[in-house]
Amino acid sequence: MPSTQTIDEARLNEFMGRFVGDLGAALSAALVVIGDRLGLYRAMADGEQVSADELASRTGTDARYVREWLANQAAGGYVSYDPETERFSLSPEQSLALAQEGSPAFVPGAFQLATALTKDESKIAEAFTTGHGVGWHEHHHDLFAGTERFFRPGYSANLISSWIPALDGVAEKLEAGGLVADVGCGHGASTIIMAEAFPRSEFVGFDYHGPSIAHARQAASDAGLEGRVSFEVAPAKSYPGSGYDLVAMFDCLHDMGDPVGAAAHVLGTLKGDGTWLIVEPYAGDRLEDNLNPVGRVFYGASTLVCTPASRDQEVGLALGAQAGEARLRAVVTEGGFTHFRRATETPFNLVLEARP
Questions:
Q1: In whole angstroms, what is the distance from residue 56 CA to residue 120 CA?
Q2: b vs e for 57-81, b when ≥16 Cβ sit within 10 Å of the residue's Cβ?
Q3: What are phi and psi for residue 60, nearest 5 degrees?
Q4: Following CA atoms 239, 244, 250, 256 in sequence, which dihedral angle do they give, to the nearest 10 degrees?
Q5: Nearest-angstrom CA–CA distance, 259 and 26
Q6: Which CATH number characterizes residue 328's domain?
Q7: Is 198:170 a contact under the CB 8 Å cutoff?
């Protein structure tokens, strides 16, 4: 039935403006991935102005496609355009974000992740109708690489400089030589960052996804860390070993079907004075606290990957990527931990400490 509500034209125009921005962003996401994959951004990293023909020559691509790509990127503010010279360039800030992998502001991995999830839209739509899950392993392979590339800059910027120092006595243990389990390690970026910072400690990364563990093993070998860093295929509720000084979980507890069971297993594998480091997406405890651009990103990811992943496992608690500190506290304490606190935070992360 047609709506009989009165339409406020100004509010409608405001909404349509937001829609145009969102549509442009959605279409441009694939173009960021293409620019990253073909080296177009990297070929502009020096900040010098280039024409479409010059950029195509540098990258072995077709100039007509490159010209259209550059126009899209300039319209979105991802490259700069000089109408007097009719040439394009990257500002230092654009270069840091788009062309310099490993920088704390590097963003193409986020677009790689996002476009991977849109490729799985039909699977998620079916899950809406059945209530069933979609396992992490069932997603497009770009999700695994994109997730590492998206999260690694934040880990590089914060893990050693602020997150571990915020935990009671943990940095000192790792400097002296401790044993660490990185559970849900994916491609192993967080494990390797910690291992490089604490050369006297030993690290084991666990993940149920075999291809990710294979990638992590190769990454550790490339970094010269074999012998002190290892990776094993194992789920969070039954990874092997005990006597860990630190168990870490980065952006994965909310994806688990049975996070309470995982918490109980962590408790059983820690030393008596050990610590569980839990890094989760930043969220308030109320829905209205998270109705902002960051919350929009996390709720989107939660709908497309986190909730389906949890639903694919036993229990299927489906905490979601915006669980909030209160719900996470309840999970951790139900698993048997008696000490829980927010150690620190960033605009994108809650960094939580749990101890027996």
A1: 31
A2: eebebeeeebbebbebbbeeebbbb
A3: 70, 35
A4: 30
A5: 33
A6: 3.40.50.150
A7: no
How distant, in Å, are the alpha carbons of 139, 196, 243 from that of 226? 29, 12, 21
**Whether residue 321 sits in one domain with residue 175:** yes
Mean pLDDT of the chain: 97
162 SS3 class:
helix
DSSP 42-98: GGGTT---B-HHHHHHHHT--HHHHHHHHHHHHHTTSSEEETTTTEEE--HHHHHHH
- Residue 68: give its domain's CATH number: 1.10.10.10
Burial 296-331 (b: 16+ CB within 10 A, else e): eebbebbbbbbbbbbbbbeebbbbbbbbbbebbbeb
Q: Say how many Å lie between the first and final Cα of the chain, rounded.
A: 58
- Of the three residues 97, 119, 134, the one that is the final residue of a domain is 97
Whether residue 157 sits in one domain with residue 71 = no
- What span, in angstroms and rounded, lies between the C-alpha atoms of 3 and 12? 14
Overall average pLDDT of the 199-209 stretch: 98
Number of domains in the chain: 2
Stated length of the chain: 356
How much is the pLDDT for 5? 84
Query: pTM here?
Result: 0.93
Does residue 317 belong to any structural domain of this protein? Answer: yes
Do the domain assignments include residue 199? Answer: yes
Residue 268 has pLDDT above 70, yes or no: yes
- Asked if residue 167 and residue 59 are part of one domain, the reply reads no
Token pair in block for residue 335: 């698993």
The tokens describing 30, both together, are: 């694939």
| Residue 88: domain span | 9-97
Residue pair 190/218 in contact (Cβ under 8 Å)? The answer is: no
